[in-house]
């Protein structure tokens, strides 16, 4: 492709940009800055010249490790900021000149300071939570002991009063004996207090009972509010417990059980006076700790706020440095080890910009020697690069999903911008639905700046990415809807009055019976009088079926014509004479002729049966046509077309393999050993089917012939099946129209007929949900997938190889999407 000059030539989607393999020889002292400037430019795809080395054996492995460690620290800062509820500031995202060594030291100091703050904060928070639990134990335990003491005092009084009333001669002697025996046998009971999670309290009580064989007394009181657990830091429902035991053995068992159940134990004084002092002391310590924790959190928030102000700047710097060193690792050292050698692909138009970047890097790094830029001649297939904008990128993605275009082959993305939404609209023709779809898309387009910076869900992000495709689909749907004259299945007299009217008033409620043409033909689209008539379905079926065949044959012809442009561009005369010409003859001898018959029948108003004509064209080509004759000489024309179709099959199959073999033999007789141009590779690409034409490869005639046989059979059978496949345009259009009629008549009109406001409201709600859910979502997706299939299979397989690979330049602009 000729160089069109200038830094930014006009966008040309028909063929990919002309590419060149370039070699850069960069002095070591300016290598980093050079790669950085090339990353800003984003127009050079580096080749890995050290593919035989592992990542750890490469020159800049240690620098990448340093950048990875800094990226880890930045991720740590981001996690801490998100936990604290801070967002990173984008005000200072513009990168200033930061030294990487200084940044590494600074990040290390900030990380150490933040880790220390977190550790101290966690320690203080744990102590604070323990004190809160301790205070709760003191309060609940104190209440228990106070109530127990009151009950004991009351019991003693009661017993004393009973003794005074029942005095006898024997009583003092017996009481004195009992008292003496009780004092000698009295056992001192110990107790343990703490908190246990409420969900474990029943199991805790059961295990205590079994472990001590019932020789404990357990008292539990639930805490009213959730308690923050000192270990986990989570809010948990807990019970305050007191366990009374006897003996050291029982105590050891209880301590182990408490540890197993995660029960936190706290010391407790039996004396009520000491309990009051302890509560006051704990309350004072809690207030002190609260003040200390608040001051620590304030310091931590200030530190995180300071980090957040520069986070984006640091993050971009580290990402860029890491990507620069990754790229430098793809360069090879020259023999003197003073220069780095780089190879890569770049568009031809970017030559001047790359050279300017190299000169600027040499000047800014004070290098004694500038970098050397030279173009290499290669037979390797270049990458494919289309410069797209936000409107064309989604259409190009539709094509790339099938396969990336081979270098500089005709790009179907140009035609897809029009044909894809148009074929969708043929199946989705309703200007009411089209307006709804357009309004939904308009929301994404109006808010695209805001939405492009947000993280969206999978389905929303996919819809947002294809917003311009959906917009074109909706506009074409409005156009085809006006042609079909359907607004939610209701016809309107938008472009004038109907051409038909009743003979008299008695036929007002009838359909086509009694209708006569009283005016000129309806100027645009379908006459509204057809809707609701008896002959509506047969008429629309016939119209849409014939229209589908016409559109299909036209698009397939476009595909074959594009194969001619490919063959001309790559100077492949074999494909012109033995692929393009016989394919055009075969397709148009049969289905091009059928399209012509459809148009002639429409123009003449003939009653000829086209099925009969096409079938007997094969079965009895010499028979008279009779009433099915549409024009003079039709019988002779059909015989000639049939013979041409039969001749074109061996024309496609036989000559090409023999001519390819002859060309191969001529090359190997020394007639054509001159260096090949980049376009000559296609001569043997057919022979090797995907190779790039290396002369030392052997020519396998059998493989070439079988490949050509498969290609011929595929085209001949595909001409029939692909034409039939376009009938899906008719089928889906009919289904969409009939569904609209069903929802309108059987839901909306039915609800209207009841003359009840509640039923009407319910009917409107059901109609809206059915229209949105079925017609605007499911039918849109269905028509989209069918239009996709028609492009991929019926259109693109006529000319599109799609065996290329994308141009992935080294660009800092692409780093924003990656978190690594």
From TrEMBL:
Its main location: membrane. It is a multi-pass membrane protein. The chain crosses the membrane at residues 422-446, 467-484, 547-565, 577-600, 636-654, 757-778. The keyword Transport applies. InterPro entries: V-ATPase_116kDa_su (IPR002490), V-type_ATPase_116kDa_su_euka (IPR026028). Keywords: Coiled coil, Hydrogen ion transport, Ion transport, Membrane, Transmembrane, Transmembrane helix, Transport. It is found in: Membrane. Residues 93-127 form a coiled coil. It comes from the Eukaryota. It holds the Pfam family V_ATPase_I. Belongs to the V-ATPase 116 kDa subunit family. Essential component of the vacuolar proton pump (V-ATPase), a multimeric enzyme that catalyzes the translocation of protons across the membranes. Required for assembly and activity of the V-ATPase. This is V-type proton ATPase subunit a. It comes from Hibiscus sabdariffa.
